[in-house]
Amino acid sequence: MIKFLKNSFNPGVWMTCFVIFFLPILLYLGYWQISRGFEKKAIWEAYSINKTLPPIQEKELSLYKIEDLFYRSVVIQGSYINDSFLLDNRVYRSKKGYEIFTPFKSEGQQVYLVNRGWTSNYSDHPFKAPEGKHLIEGIISPFDKYGLNLSKTETEESFPVVVQELTHSSASKLLGKNLSIEEIVIQLSAASKGSFEPIWGPTELKAPRHWGYAAQWLGLALVLLILYFYFGYKEPSKQ
Question: Less Cβ crowding at N or C end of the chain, within 10 Å?
Answer without folding.
Answer: C
